[in-house]
């Protein structure tokens, strides 16, 4: 068995805590090579946090560099559970336009956090950032959700309709100006993207209150910026509760099965629930029975990274 053999999975996430400060980055590791059995590392304590910006981070996403030179983690600069309580209108209209970034050579040692402004001045926030490597251009495409307001609306009092914006980077320090990418009636958030063969699959969440809302949906297209995406499925995960968001998608190492996790937040306990398919292109997803997904409750919005055996062994000691 080689250290670079595919083996195991790492989940980066935050933990819901209505009574305290849970908005920090946690790591959970698969039990062996099983993508349905997980344990939190570091005795359940967070691994990364920041006191700058809003003082909290949510929605972490982890990406491997294609050159083998390490990893980048990006997260939303947002602390919701404050002593005075959450104010979602304030967060959407006058939130942070930054993302929080950490770098790591090995998933065990991490740089200091840095805040990077990616949303334009007319944006109200920058939520759920994720990075997708564009092989053709040789850059990472960072996408995130933001509500944009008119230039003559400096107090951001107009309609608050989030859309997906994109920017590109090579080093997660400098980013190109953000541009609108995906808009839907009522708003769209939480996009995640995976490549499978010569196709790109994107998943996102349309606002529940939009007429005929797709809610969590699955589309496929020939490339990230091709306009020819087709919708394969809508309303994904609605059987788990009245409100789901934050899709994450990953394959097993042999590619024979894909998992789609959605963050159920409409009723306690909050946290991920899973669907699965053996044919990603079909858009046909079956729910994983609750008793088969062994994941602590309140495990929230993050990403799964397939590992190599040596990486899994190193993390297993944490």
Automatic annotation (TrEMBL):
GO terms for molecular function: hydrolase activity. InterPro entries: GH43_arabinanases, Glyco_hydro_beta-prop_sf. Keywords: Hydrolase. The keyword Translocase does not apply. This is Glycoside hydrolase family 43 protein. The lineage of its organism: Bacteria, Bacillati, Actinomycetota, Actinomycetes, Micrococcales.
């Amino acid at each position: 068995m080689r250290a670079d053999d595919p083996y195991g999975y790492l989940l980066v996430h935050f933990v819901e805590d209505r009574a305290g400060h849970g908005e920090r980055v946690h790591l959970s590791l698969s039990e062996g090579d099983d993508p349905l059995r997980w344990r939190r590392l570091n005795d359940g304590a967070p691994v990364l946090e920041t006191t700058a910006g809003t003082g909290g981070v949510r929605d972490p996403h982890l990406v491997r560099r294609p050159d083998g030179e390490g990893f980048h983690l990006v997260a939303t600069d947002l602390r919701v559970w404050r002593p005075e309580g959450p104010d979602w209108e304030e967060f959407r209209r006058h939130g942070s336009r930054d993302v929080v970034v950490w770098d790591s050579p090995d998933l065990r040692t991490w740089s200091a956090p840095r805040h990077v402004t990616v949303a334009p001045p007319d944006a109200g926030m920058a939520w759920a950032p994720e990075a997708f490597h564009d092989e053709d251009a040789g850059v990472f495409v960072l996408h995130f959700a933001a509500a944009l307001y008119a230039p003559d609306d400096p107090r951001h009092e107009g309609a608050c309709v989030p859309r997906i914006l994109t920017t590109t980077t090579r080093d997660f320090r400098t980013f190109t100006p953000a541009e609108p990418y995906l808009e839907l009636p009522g708003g769209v958030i939480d996009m995640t993207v995976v490549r499978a063969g010569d196709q790109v699959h994107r998943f996102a969440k349309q606002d529940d209150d939009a007429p005929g809302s797709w809610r969590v949906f699955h589309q496929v297209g020939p490339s990230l910026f091709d306009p020819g995406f087709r919708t394969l499925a809508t309303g994904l995960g609605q059987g788990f509760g009245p409100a789901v968001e934050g899709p994450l998608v990953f394959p097993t190492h042999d590619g024979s099965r894909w998992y789609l996790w959605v963050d159920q937040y409409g009723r306690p306990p909050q946290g991920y629930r899973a669907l699965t398919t053996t044919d990603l292109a079909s858009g046909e997803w079956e729910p994983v029975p609750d008793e088969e997904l062994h994941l602590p409750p309140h495990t929230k919005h993050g990403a799964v990274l397939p590992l190599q055996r040596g990486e899994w062994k190193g993390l297993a000691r944490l």
